[in-house]
Design goal:
mainly alpha, 7 helices, about 70% helix, elongated
């Protein structure tokens, strides 16, 4: 039961990292791997939190016209335009880059704005986010 707050912290940092707030879940995950938490559970918790945060972006994208120009909007107009062009060119598979800093969050907003179905959105984003966390969790084990 003492580990529950640590996992909740990881979940929260992963969730917030995928939304409008500047947060780094990678450092939290790696720190927990280095302190002997089970990597598989850490990857699962971080992935679920990060995917749910991306779903928030998708939902914001669905309402993009209502929210555009708001101070808290998760992407600048230039980022949205770049992500829209990328999304229109490569379609839903561009969501495999949803983990990439700077372009990932705008891609998830654009996916909502361009009406990507939630099921395919979650499936593709989950694969991308999970793969990133697997690599991050494996790195300290490989080098430490």
């Amino acid at each position: 039961m003492t580990a529950l707050p640590a996992y909740a912290g990881l979940f929260l940092s992963a969730f917030l990292a995928a939304t409008v707030l500047p947060m780094q879940s990678e450092a939290v995950l790696v720190g927990m791997v280095l302190t002997d938490y089970p990597p598989v559970l850490l990857v699962a918790v971080a992935t679920v939190g990060n995917v749910l945060g991306s779903v928030v972006n998708w939902a914001i994208g669905r309402q993009v016209e209502r929210f555009r120009g708001k101070r808290w909007f998760p992407a600048s107009p230039a980022q949205v335009e770049r992500a829209t062009a990328w999304y229109r060119r490569y379609g839903r598979w561009s969501l495999l880059l949803s983990w990439v800093p700077v372009i990932g969050d705008p891609l998830t907003v654009v996916a909502g704005a361009l009406r990507e179905p939630l099921v395919s959105f979650v499936a593709i984003v989950a694969v991308a986010k999970c793969a990133r966390y697997v690599v991050l969790a494996a790195a300290p084990m490989a080098f430490g």
